[in-house]
Write a structure and sequence with these properties.
Length: 521
């Protein structure tokens, strides 16, 4: 059984968590990296699995647009420094056409989600606070400030109790900042606060002191309290969290305990999911490391993008190392295997993975010929290969319209892969002139290059030429490795490279022969 179906089954058979309300959330503080798609995708899968069980479910995604600007993407570091400390929703958009900073970045990940079939309904935290929906929980939290501090201390073990601390921040009436205000008194109606010049290192408060009502969007709860408060206000019953939040004593634990002890709200069905790693490292938006979420559909079809998350159990890390690796061709192979399992009904889990990876409609269960991605990438680098003809030969009959469509789509993505991600041996290019490294050629190697001129001249297919090149090295007594590195030194200035015959035949013959003559002199 697919892991998402297991979770759905566990939820339904528990008899709890009704009505089923799946939720996830994100702060729109910059362009999301590809790893941050894991949460939305996991929630989308659980939502679909619940619906497939036949129960009613709801799926929302909260845009945390009432959060503070507390870090900036590198390209905005200087121009937006003055907005540090402001609510994201009260900060202007970096680009025209958006109402706020929050809206600009939220729109980007809403688009990513749509592309990947994440069907959540979006809600704005700022709007919910301003509509007064949080008034009740704000009062509860302010009335329970001691208890909340106890919970922080008990669960995370780190925080020292501060006398007079209150779980709330207001927007300063004088300067408009949220991240700099300290609320120090609550009389049951209003809070007293000071906009502190030195409370945080990343923003400076104006020093203003005031007393205002905390309700109706005048301020917000600190995020762990805010998280639990959202569950209660909305009625969320299912929400997972990334491992960084879900570790023992972390923010998720605190939020769940706040449900029990402060808000009197049943804990949502919860679990922590593993990291998404690139080259063994956890991705980070602020450090600009790795791929942006909106780039995923530029490098592979959306179903494949979804498949990345569907195929891996939430308990396992996803290693997504695309640069200079065969990861993308491997992913296509796995996807094709899942598709064929779906058609043949051979592997239930794999077939289900395929179904859950579809963006909207699941393809009909008809036999299908899937042109292999890595072959397309190979053929694209050979001279005069008619892709359609090549694959029709492979299939043994004409491709159907659907198959042609897939071939065309894969051709597009194979070009992207070759240009940006393929290992060197897949995309080595002949140098414009004889590389300086060709000086390293021994006389034996030069003589070999002179002898292959004839072979290349008469060659018409790479399979035969490759054999001939190999045979010739045997005949002349040069070590095979030396022979092939002679070719690479003459064409790319390295002692290793792509499969020689395929490489040589992709260029105009005149150019190749001229280079061989020059290098063998
Ligand atoms: Zn202020």
């Amino acid at each position: 059984m697919h892991w998402a179906d297991k979770i759905a089954q566990e939820i339904v058979s528990s008899g709890k968590y009704k009505p089923y309300w799946v939720d996830d959330m994100k702060t729109p503080s910059g362009f999301a990296h590809v790893g941050s798609l894991r949460g939305p995708l996991i929630h989308s899968l659980i939502f679909r699995a619940l619906k497939d069980v036949g129960v009613e479910a709801r799926f929302t995604f909260v845009i945390n647009d009432f959060d503070t600007v507390d870090e900036l993407p590198s390209d905005l570091k200087e121009s937006f420094a003055k907005y540090m400390g402001f609510p994201l929703r009260a900060t202007p958009s970096p680009k025209d056409g958006y109402k706020s900073y929050a809206e600009y970045f939220a729109q980007d990940f809403k688009n990513n989600f749509k592309d990947l079939g994440v069907e959540a309904q979006f809600l704005s935290s700022w709007d919910m606070y301003h509509e007064g929906k949080f008034d009740e929980v704000i009062k509860m939290a302010l009335d329970s400030s001691e208890k909340i501090q106890d919970i922080y201390q008990k669960i995370s073990g780190s925080r020292k109790k501060e006398k007079g601390w209150l779980p709330f921040q207001v927007i300063c009436e004088n300067c408009g900042k949220l991240g700099t205000t300290r609320v120090y008194a609550w009389d049951g109606k209003e809070v007293s606060y000071k906009c502190e010049p030195n409370m945080v290192a990343w923003a400076k408060g104006c020093g203003h002191e005031g007393k205002i009502s905390p309700f109706g969007g005048k301020g917000k709860l600190p995020w762990k309290v805010d998280w639990a408060a959202h569950w209660k206000v909305m009625g969320v019953t299912i929400e997972a969290a990334g491992k960084d939040h879900a570790s023992k004593g972390g923010s998720y634990d605190i939020a769940l305990t706040l449900c029990d002890e402060v808000f009197g709200y049943p804990r949502p069905f919860n679990f922590g999911y593993e990291f998404f790693l690139i080259g063994g490292k956890k991705m980070s938006s602020s450090k600009g490391l790795g791929l942006k979420a909106h780039d995923l559909v530029k490098i592979m079809p959306a179903e494949l993008g979804r498949f990345v998350f569907t195929r891996t159990n939430y308990k396992e890390q996803i290693e997504f190392d695309l640069m200079g690796t065969m990861a993308i061709p491997d992913l296509f192979d796995e996807y094709d295997e899942a598709w064929q399992a779906y058609v043949a009904g051979t592997d239930e889990n794999l077939a289900r993975t395929f179904i859950l990876s579809q963006i909207s409609e699941v393809p009909a269960k008809n036999p299908i010929f899937l042109p292999r991605f890595r072959d397309i990438a190979n053929y694209l680098q050979l001279p005069d290969v008619d892709l359609l003809k090549k694959f029709e030969e492979g299939k043994g009959s004409p491709l159907s319209e659907k198959e042609k469509e897939i071939l065309k789509e894969r051709e597009k993505y194979a070009k992207v892969w070759l240009e940006n991600y393929a290992p060197e041996e897949f995309r080595e290019q002949m140098s414009g002139k004889l590389p300086v490294e060709a000086k390293k050629l021994s006389s034996e190697q030069k003589s070999y290059l002179g002898k292959i001129i004839k072979l290349v001249d008469k060659a018409s297919n790479p399979d035969d030429l490759q054999k001939d090149l190999y045979e010739l090295s045997k005949e002349t007594g040069i070590k095979t490795k030396e022979a092939f590195s002679a070719i690479y030194l003459a064409f790319i200035g390295k002692d290793h490279g792509p499969r020689a015959a395929w490489f040589l035949l992709q260029y105009p013959k005149g150019k190749v022969l001229a280079r061989l003559k020059e290098a063998s002199k």
